[in-house]
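Example with several molecule types.
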Amino acid sequence: MNSLNSNNGIYFAEEAEQWLRRRLENNPDRFMLCDTNTQLHCLPHFEKIFGKTDPGHLIVMPAGEAHKQLETAEEIWRQLQLSGARRDSLLMNLGGGVVCDIGGFVAATWKRGIPFIHIPTTLMAQTDAAIGGKCALNFGGIKNQIGLIRQPEAVCILPDFLKSLPQQEIHAGYAEMLKHGIIADAGLFRTLLKGDSRVPPNTALIRRSVGIKMDFVQQDTEDRNVRKALNFGHSIGHLLEALSDGRLSHGEAVAQGMRAETRIAYDQGIINRDDFLEIESALHLIYGDFPKLSCSREEIGKLLAADKKCDSRSLNFSLPECIGKVRTDCPVSTEEVWNALQTIG
Ligand SMILES: NC(=O)c1ccc[n+]([C@@H]2O[C@H](COP(=O)([O-])OP(=O)(O)OC[C@H]3O[C@@H](n4cnc5c(N)ncnc54)[C@H](O)[C@@H]3O)[C@@H](O)[C@H]2O)c1
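Resulting structure tokens for the full complex:
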């Protein structure tokens, strides 16, 4: 696989600062989308480097997954309209995965698409959500039901933003980095296991994680074949996130989803016992016991069927073959999911 360089439109640290400075000189008509937390913790640092945002061009949404909704998108469109945003206006999304997902969606649809830049401020967004161009909203209680794939003009990763991020959010983002290790790089997985999931990893590890995601995205931008590898842990993860009603963060749900899906891979004879046990014990140690679910087999079947990763005939999961390699399009039955959920403690 190719290694990552700045031509992918992804810039780190000083390079990101230089790129953004040049870009903003050329486009004074810039809008900034934040949530209430990034307005408080990240905007002052951003403005110290890049100058003040025109108050009429600052759009602040409420923080949290519960607001990744059509109503929020509508409010942002309304504010763009009131402030006279044009086809060549620029939207900067300063925030975590929620701000990047909704900001990307709003920009991609406003006047059939205006340029946008992600400036991710959580570990989850720096290593995953801001990378690859997927933008989506939740709808009808199901994750990411409405959305599209549109690449941002650039992703500017400034590690300094992680300094104000609460520990539990680092912990959540760590899960996606561990996933990148399990699906493509055993060395990354084992290096992360030696670290502390509540402390921001160094920039080299963030770069490696981003590089893995970009390698899959570049080979399959539209998510038709190899990119599906990145779905490991997400079929069951999204189900758990929906059932937990906000108690599990996206990252924690994906970590538990990876445990359950690795169990299915083991039951199907896809992964050997040693690798299964290594993944299972590591994720259990870091993310704790599996959440208690109060829902029926039928409910689980319905939620799985509503997931985008399911086609008209079957559930198709991406399951690990060993640490560092994943197999896509593995047929899985609701029964197998139910059994895995019962087995994991
Ligand atoms: N598009 C994709 O490919 C993709 C991939 C992975 C996840 N996602 C989506 O990303 C979302 C999860 O992202 P997330 O974990 O970043 O959640 P988030 O955006 O809700 O951020 C988590 C919390 O941290 C706060 N925050 C953000 N940056 C901060 C900072 N620097 N200092 C202090 N507080 C800060 C936020 O306000 C929020 O309260 C989910 O909706 C998920 O579906 C999308």
